[in-house]
Amino acid sequence: MEHKVVGNIVEIAVDVVKIADGRYRKEMGDVESLAESIKTVGQLVPIIVSDDMTLIAGERRLRAHKLLEKPTIRAVVETREDINKQIIEILENLERKDFTWQEQVMAIEDLHMMMKAVQGSRWSMRKTAEKIGLSKSGVITDLDLAQALKEAPDMFERCDTKKKALKALQKYKIDETMAEITLRRSKTDYGKSAKNHVFLGDCLNLIDKLPDHIVNAVISDPFYGIDIDKSKKFNTDETNIPHIYDDSEKLYKDTMSVLISKLDRVMAKDSWVVFFCAIQHYYWLHEQLSKSGFHPDIIPAIWYKTGTSGQTNQPNTLFGRVYEPFIYAKRGDATLIKAGQPNVLQFPVVHSMNKDHPVEKPVSLLEEVIGRFCLPGHVILDPMCGSGSTLVAGIKRGCNPIGFELQEVNYNISINNVSEVLKMKDAGRMDLLNR
């Protein structure tokens, strides 16, 4: 197949592209999803090959094309002369004193791939390391960083040093592994069943797809609108990455006001709403729910966190905070399943080593909440389900929970947690899921 060389994008036959032995990338990630994207919107980024058709960059795109059985692929063809010039330029640039860590790792990746294109199987990561005066393990790490930087640049936005970037890379690998596990598990019967409970997307859009008046209770632990993503606890560790989400008061109130306005259509005549919240927004929530026809208690209910002295950024002037409030409101003539219960619920926090989400509520607490408002068989909606704790608690209580989640990482975790509880339920071993 003829093609024009020297840096232009051309169509080449897929089967003529050669993959050199010893390429550093071993895991290809979710090639199936990439193939589906290419099938839908086309190939947005060309691969790069040498003039003898040895692949320099774009192996996932090449594999996706093979999976789709496409005969051709868009490519940029580099001549040997061009590659040698680029190698010299990269080596010169690597000696720059003002190189950022991002520029450094991308340059090392380019150098390694260019040398592979020229030398073929004779070239190795060890030789790349020797050429630039690094250890082999250092080169492997830099190549991993370069790959992650291309695939998930947002993960590194606040990483102004390589040390912070390495911490971010560790988290990225965990998230990527979770996505791979989710992909495999979602193909099992339990994974398919989990997808009947967890849905990826914006709750303000997904709620419009629910049938009228099917929800018996909305029970949710949404974001709090207190700028927690900017607080010391979540923003000054070694990664310096925003662990959770935009937690501004404006976004919180805009989102919650629209969400509450949409509840009337989907909720049953006699039903309940429960929202965990920041104390400073309690009476704003009270007003919003009242305006939408709900009847909230004027007094907050409290989750008292047993076994802890609480958290505070100012221990010399403020007490440790050991409780969180939640608001509950009835619609129609709804009545409590458990009458006469106290409005303080005492449960320990989830240990940090067991958390799937930075602000995760214990399943035992959510089981108690659900038990007060719902009967087995009731449909529970959690419009911001996070890691799926409410869904797990609902299944354990014999209910039919539905969860929406905006962040894909949390959606993957929810799918796994719901899959696990469904499997344990069938096995009659729900006792193994107490946490």
Compact description:
Strand 12, helix 14 and strand 13 form a beta-alpha-beta unit. The chain has two domains: 144 residues, no CATH class; 257 residues, Rossmann fold (3-Layer(aba) Sandwich), CATH 3.40.50.150. It is an alpha/beta fold.
Blueprint (SSEs and pairs):
Elements: E1 9-13, H1 31-41, E2 47-50, E3 55-57, H2 59-67, E4 72-78, H3 80-93, H4 101-119, H5 125-132, H6 136-151, H7 162-186, H8 189-194, E5 198-200, H9 203-206, E6 215-220, H10 232-235, H11 249-266, E7 267-276, H12 282-291, E8 295-296, E9 301-306, E10 323-331, E11 344-348, H13 363-373, E12 379-382, H14 389-396, E13 400-405, H15 408-427
Parallel strand pairs: 2-4, 5-13, 6-7, 6-12, 9-11, 12-13
Antiparallel strand pairs: 1-4, 2-3, 7-10, 8-10, 9-10
Helix pairs in contact: 1-2, 3-4, 4-6, 5-6, 6-7, 7-15, 13-14, 14-15
Write a structural description.
The strands form 2 sheets. Strands 5, 6, 7, 8, 9, 10, 11, 12 and 13 form a 9-stranded mixed beta sheet that branches. A 4-stranded mixed beta sheet has the order 1-4-2-3, sandwiched between helices. It folds into 2 domains: 9-152, no CATH class; 177-433, Rossmann fold. It has 435 residues and is an alpha/beta fold. It is built from 15 helices and 13 strands. The model is unreliable at 1-7, 22-28 and 234-243 (pLDDT under 50).
